[in-house]
Specification:
The chain is α/β, with parallel strands linked by helices. It folds into three domains: 65 residues, no CATH class; 108 residues, EIF_2_alpha (Alpha-Beta Plaits); 235 residues, Rossmann fold, CATH 3.40.50. The strands form three sheets. The protein has an eight-stranded mixed beta sheet, sandwiched between helices. The protein has a four-stranded antiparallel beta sheet with strand order 2-3-1-4. Strands 5-13 form a two-stranded antiparallel sheet. A hairpin with a 5-residue loop joins strand 2 and strand 3. The longest helix has 26 residues. The protein starts with 6 loop residues before the first helix and ends in a 7-residue tail after the last helix.
Length: 433
């Protein structure tokens, strides 16, 4: 990622890496839940003592209570008091010293004695013992007297630990950790998420921006009936047409860095886009290891390119009509000798095809998967590299270096499965300029 972009780029990374973020957060939350469950429950026993002026002392009033009552609060938690109360209780003085607390209601003489222990019965017992000790202490006060107004009862609800609060905090911490992991992952293995990333991180123009589409997944041959998909491929055609015309390019190879980038779909629809100009266009399935065109287009099963390369049949007899006017297809089947056949004969087959067709679009295997795509690319007059959103920068750049080393002219990149608004395709802004 580019450090100059700062927070926006970090947020963009999190947008694409939300799954790892969520997984880390859930894992941390699950671990925290197991830890929180092991924490012992604690209960608050609460007793209430009222401090009031003595009836036989007319001079004592509310002001006396406000001034003197705080000393009663301090008395409850004093070490000497704790030791005295602990004598009659099952808990030690050290335990009670940490467990006892006393609070004075503002502008009143109401003191709440709270003892937090793991047993609700012992918490209530200890709270009552401290409250009684406080009442006994008040008997020696010449101005005020104390009275136990509410005994502590064994509480039913736990007071600690605050499990929901702890789990909420764990979720927040988990999300922060997950975000950190995701950002580090994005920095360590950057991905091409948008067409801008593709152009910026490869240095090549993006000549086509193909959106995600149900039409492409369901029936590729109906792609041009989808306004957005059709517009994206017409834009691609418009972007490459000047180069095709100026450099008299007729043989176009469509490939990708790795499998599942959608190159077969792009190759087929680039061929359709060219045929819609009224140019006789041949779409060739150059993948003799994993051919897909015949299956995707429901074509008749023929050996196709494999048979032509083996001189088993003539090119014209293996070519089949496409799904639109002026489009023709040369499918193929799996052939174990693909590498040698392509190296020996593909150039001759391509030259023969150029005599009958104005454009030839060849769908090849991924560049980094086998040597077949490199063999075909050496005969190409132009190469289109399909880059699917989320592709590894390293792999795409390796594919580009491979094309450059073969001295095959790279027309540009075709960004596939991009999540963009339909307006970009409607207005035809398919290039990076």
């Amino acid at each position: 990622m580019n450090p100059e972009r700062g927070l926006p780029e970090l947020l963009e990374a999190l947008r694409w890496q939300w799954k790892p973020t969520l997984l880390v957060a859930l894992a941390f939350l699950a671990g925290s839940y197991l830890v929180v469950r092991t924490l012992p429950s604690e209960y608050d026993g609460k007793a209430i003592v009222a401090i009031a002026p003595r009836a036989d002392v007319p001079s004592a009033g509310a002001d006396t209570v406000r001034v003197v009552a705080p000393k009663y609060v301090d008395y409850v938690t004093a070490p000497a008091t704790v030791r005295a109360v602990a004598i009659g209780l099952p808990d030690s003085a050290q335990t009670l010293e940490k467990a006892v607390n006393a609070t004075l209601a503002r502008d009143t003489g109401t003191i709440t004695v709270t003892v937090r222990l793991r047993s609700p019965e012992r918490a209530a017992q200890a709270a009552n013992a401290f409250a009684q000790q406080l009442v006994n202490f008040s008997r020696g006060d010449p101005l005020l007297s104390g009275q136990l107004v509410a005994e502590a009862l064994p509480p039913k609800a736990t007071a600690a630990p605050p499990r929901r609060l702890l789990l909420g905090a764990a979720l927040i911490v988990g999300l922060l950790l997950g975000a950190g992991v995701s950002v580090l992952r994005e920095r360590g293995r950057p991905r091409l998420r948008t067409w801008r990333d593709m152009a910026r991180l490869t240095g090549y123009q993006v000549v086509g921006r193909i959106p995600t589409s149900r039409t492409l997944r369901k029936k590729m041959t109906m792609a041009f009936s989808d306004p957005i998909v059709g517009a994206s491929f017409r834009t691609l055609r418009a972007n490459i047409e000047p180069q095709l015309r100026d450099h008299k390019i007729k043989l176009i190879v469509v490939t990708s860095a790795s499998p599942a980038d959608g190159k077969t779909t792009v190759a087929a629809l680039v061929a359709e886009a060219l045929s819609r100009l009224g140019a006789r266009t041949l779409l060739v399935d150059g993948d003799l290891r994993r051919p897909r065109l015949a299956t995707m287009m429901s074509l008749n099963e023929h050996r196709g390119l494999s048979s032509v390369l083996r001189r088993g049949s003539e090119l014209k007899s293996e070519v089949q009509p496409g799904w639109v006017q002026d489009l023709f297809v040369l499918p193929t089947v799996v052939d174990d000798d693909a590498g040698d056949l392509l190296a020996r004969r593909f150039g001759e087959v391509a030259d023969e095809a150029l005599e009958d067709f104005e454009f030839i679009v060849v769908d090849t295997p991924p560049l980094l998967a086998t040597e077949d795509a490199r063999t075909i690319a050496t005969h190409a007059q132009a190469v289109l590299l399909v880059v699917s959103a989320g592709s590894s920068v390293e792999q795409v750049n390796e594919a580009i270096l491979t094309i450059e080393s073969l001295k095959a002219p790279l027309l540009g990149l075709v960004g596939n499965r991009l999540k963009e608004s339909g307006a970009a395709y409607y207005y035809g802004s398919g290039s990076t300029t």
